[in-house]
Design brief:
Layout: E1 6-12, H1 20-32, E2 38-44, H2 56-59, E3 63-64, E4 70-71, H3 74-82, E5 91-93, H4 94-107, H5 117-134, E6 140-145, H6 155-168, E7 173-180, E8 183-184, E9 189-190, H7 193-204, E10 211-216, H8 222-232, E11 239-243, H9 251-258, H10 260-267, H11 278-288, E12 292-300, H12 310-322, E13 325-333, H13 342-346, E14 351-354, H14 363-375, E15 380-383, H15 385-399, E16 404-406, E17 415-420, E18 435-443, H16 448-452, E19 457-464, E20 466-468, H17 473-479, E21 482-486, E22 493-497, E23 504-507, H18 522-537
Parallel strand pairs: 1-6, 1-7, 2-5, 2-6, 7-10, 10-11, 12-13, 12-14, 14-15, 15-23, 16-17
Antiparallel strand pairs: 3-4, 8-9, 17-20, 18-19, 18-21, 21-22, 22-23
Helix pairs in contact: 1-3, 1-9, 4-5, 5-6, 11-12, 12-18, 14-15
The protein binds glutamine.
Length: 538
């Protein structure tokens, strides 16, 4: 497509957690399947500069992009659905908006002026929205506005959308409003009133929704769609139902059946055709028709909230489909693991993943879990903190350095097998100061990693402060834990393996961020394969 970039704004009403991210990603998938170059952006109305400083319990996982941005987990959905990398520009928060406006003010760029929400904050929002469009890389930019219409903190964003629709001109920017149509079982009825009110709230800010996407547990009958169209001032074909699905990977097809892509393209004045999503459908078919089942333990401390490990769970879905196996994930709280209950908690599992994390809570349980899988030849994948725990466990129980630790857990440890990186030692700020984003790694040829990745130099995304302490490398390797991946520039250890064990791999980076439907991550695919063969031999 040539010509102007088109913009689609996705707003949410009635309640949070309606799944705007999945709707945006599904729509993008359908547009991508028709040859359009699409990207998705998330605007988050909170004041943190990025979600990196947020507790996973509050906001779910923090997703990391190639360029090292710590972002909202919805960006993970965008990448997994579209297989196109996102970047810092794809996630903007109120904190970041204010930070740039205030920096400009300090530089004197507004000298003599009173700096205000309108126009200064709204101008900065508008600039950030259009940055991706101006790159020339995209025909369509979908901008998802976090929060719920009517919230105090969403107001500047909605105002920016109102202004942008004028600036961009008709046909160049449309608004999709995602709402809830609840079912009252006592009355046996679907209710449209919350949607009517939410559309009205949006209109109070001067924004008329073009398309309604209605989350519902039951099919929306025709008369109800007509009523919604009439009361909410949209066309009848622009009332789209989004019925609860058994998997998020069904949503693109559900949106296709509802014709969401068609109405969107019509409103934007663009040609529509039948999207080619054959590969996607192949994946969905494999995902839903597994030939066998395995159970993998996910050992972590944020297990109460599934969103904390979102990308890991999704990477298992991709890798499971690739192996035609259903991967059942059993979450195990590391805080409650000890020598006495470890066999009971992990003995029946086909594989174990020790999760990333920060701080001391639950780490002894993680170490106990690693010891159990190492001694019992159960396939193991350790990610980031999980890898660090594998190193500590090996140093303590194989080499006999009983006080081996990470300086994150004990700054005074005499045997810091995991230690703060040199360049981290002088940093005091917590936000955005970790080793972040994509770094290269050189693989050892005949290791598991060397065989799994079909290349000898790979690049993977990072998010950590501590590292394998290379002073201990000769000792660890002599005792049987090898470094099978190194950063070619710094020599830092990226991957450890135990060649004596059938499948024991720890990675300092986060492979889960790069797994997509079109490109299931090779390490997860190989891990699930090893888990399957362990399961068969049991
Ligand atoms: N807390 C560890 C570090 O900072 C691991 C981080 C992680 O698992 N993402 O190095």
């Amino acid at each position: 497509m040539t010509g102007k970039t088109k913009y689609i704004f996705v707003t949410g009403g009635v309640t949070s957690s309606l799944g705007k991210g999945i709707i945006a990603a599904s729509l993008a998938k359908l547009l991508q399947g028709q040859g359009y170059r699409v990207t998705i952006q998330k605007l988050d109305p909170y004041i943190n500069v990025d979600p990196g400083t947020l507790n996973p319990y509050e906001h779910g996982e923090c997703y990391v992009t190639e360029d090292g941005a710590e972002t909202d987990l919805d960006l993970g959905h965008y990448e997994r659905f579209l297989n196109v990398p996102t970047s810092q520009a794809n996630n903007v928060t109120t904190g970041r908006i204010y930070q740039s406006v205030i920096q400009k003010e300090r530089r004197g760029e507004f000298l003599g002026k009173t700096v205000q929400v309108v126009p200064h904050i709204t101008d900065e929002i508008k600039r950030r929205v259009q940055l991706l469009g101006q790159s020339g890389d995209y025909d369509i930019v979908i901008t998802e506005i976090g929060g719920t219409v009517g919230d105090i903190e969403s107001l500047p964003y909605i105002e920016a959308v109102r202004q942008l629709r004028w600036d961009l001109g008709e046909d160049n920017g449309i608004v999709i409003h995602l709402t809830l149509v609840p079912y009252l079982s006592a009355a046996g009825e679907l209710k449209t009133k919350p949607t009517q009110h939410s559309v009205k709230t949006l209109m109070e800010s001067g924004v008329q929704a073009d398309i309604l996407v209605c989350r519902t547990e039951h099919d929306l009958p025709k008369d109800l769609r007509r009523k919604l169209a009439l009361f909410c001032n949209v066309k009848e074909d622009a009332v789209i139902q989004s019925i609860d699905a058994s998997t998020i990977y069904d949503v693109p097809n559900l949106m296709l059946e509802e014709g969401l892509d068609k109405v969107v393209l019509k409103k934007l004045g663009l040609k529509s055709s039948v999207p080619d999503i054959a590969n996607w459908n192949k994946f969905v078919h494999r995902h839903k028709n597994p030939r066998s089942e395995v159970t993998i333990g996910l050992i972590g401390k944020y297990v109460e909230l599934q969103d904390s490990y979102k990308s890991i769970l999704e990477a298992f879905i991709h890798a499971g489909a690739e192996n035609e196996v259903k991967v059942v994930i059993e979450s195990v709280h590391s805080e409650y693991l000890n020598d006495d209950n470890i066999k009971l908690k992990l003995g029946h599992l086909d594989g174990v993943l020790v999760a990333p994390g920060f701080g001391e809570r639950g780490i002894e349980g993680k170490i106990t879990a690693v010891k159990f899988v190492r001694e019992n030849n159960i396939p193991f994948l350790g990610i980031c903190l999980g890898m660090q725990m594998a190193v500590i466990e090996f140093a303590r129980n194989v080499i006999g350095i009983s006080n081996a630790n990470s300086t994150e857990m004990n700054p005074e440890t005499p045997n810091p097998v995991i230690d703060l990186m040199e360049e981290q030692k002088t940093i005091t700020d917590k936000g955005g100061t970790m080793r972040l984003g994509s770094w290269k790694c050189q693989l050892k040829e005949d290791s598991i990693a060397g065989k799994v990745y079909k290349s000898d130099v790979i690049s993977e995304r990072h998010r950590h402060r501590y590292e394998f302490n290379s002073n201990f490398k000769p000792q660890m390797e002599a005792a049987g834990m090898i470094a099978s991946g190194l950063n070619p520039d710094t020599g830092l250890v990226e991957i450890v393996e135990i060649p004596e064990h059938p499948w024991f791999v720890g990675v300092q980076y986060h492979p889960e961020y790069k797994s997509t439907v079109s490109n299931p991550h090779p390490l997860f695919v190989a891990f699930v394969k090893a888990v399957l063969s362990y399961h068969r031999k049991k």
